[in-house]
C-alpha cells in the first residue's frame, strides 16, 4: 500500500538582479547605460526596442546590430544565454573590518557594441 504523497509546490520565482549594460555606438552618439530588470526574460529584439526608445528621433529608424565578444547577437536569444553576467563585486571592508553593504551593490557593466 502506497502512502499518499504531499502535493508538490513550485518555489516562487527567484528575484533577479538587474543586468547592467552599456551600449557603445559606432556613430557619434554617447554611450547608453541600461539596467535590464529581468534578463532571463528579455530577448535581444526587446533590448533593441529599449535602445531605440532612448535614441534621438533622427537615429531611431536606423538598423541596429548588436555585437558582444566579436559575435553578432541573434534577435531571438535571451540575454542570459548570449551575455556573460558580470560577477558581483567583493564586499569592501572599512578600517574596522566591517563589511560595507551599500558600496558592494555596484556591479561591473557589460559592454555591447552597436
Write the layout of secondary structure elements.
Elements: E1 19-24, E2 32-36, H1 44-54, E3 67-68, E4 71-72, H2 79-82, E5 92-93, E6 99-100, E7 110-113
Parallel strand pairs: 1-7
Antiparallel strand pairs: 1-2, 3-4, 5-6
Structural summary, described in words:
A 3-stranded mixed sheet has the order 2-1-7, with helices on one face. Strands 3-4 form a two-stranded antiparallel ribbon. With 114 residues, the protein is of the alpha+beta class. The mean pLDDT is 79. Helix content is 13%, strand content 20%. It is built from 2 helices and 7 strands.
Q: Look at the helices and sheets and give the structural class.
A: alpha+beta
* Spatial shape: globular
| Uncertain stretches of 5 or more adjacent residues | none
* Strand element count: 7
Radius of gyration: 20 Å
Main sheet: strands, sense, barrel: 3 strands, mixed
Structure described in brief:
With 114 residues, the protein is of the alpha+beta class.
Notable features of this structure?
13% helix; two-stranded antiparallel sheet; 114 residues; 2 helices; alpha+beta; 7 strands; three-stranded mixed β-sheet
Amino acid at each position: 500500500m502506497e502512502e499518499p504523497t504531499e502535493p508538490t509546490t513550485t518555489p516562487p520565482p527567484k528575484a533577479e538582479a538587474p543586468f547592467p549594460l552599456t551600449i557603445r555606438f559606432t556613430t557619434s552618439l554617447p554611450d547608453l547605460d541600461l539596467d535590464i530588470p529581468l534578463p532571463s526574460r528579455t530577448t535581444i529584439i526587446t533590448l533593441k526596442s529599449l535602445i531605440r526608445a532612448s535614441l534621438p528621433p533622427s537615429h531611431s529608424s536606423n538598423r541596429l546590430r548588436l555585437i558582444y565578444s566579436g559575435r553578432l547577437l541573434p534577435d531571438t536569444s535571451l540575454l542570459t544565454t548570449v551575455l556573460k553576467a558580470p560577477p558581483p563585486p567583493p564586499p569592501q571592508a572599512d578600517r574596522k573590518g566591517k563589511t560595507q553593504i551599500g558600496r558592494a551593490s555596484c556591479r561591473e557593466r557589460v559592454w555591447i557594441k552597436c
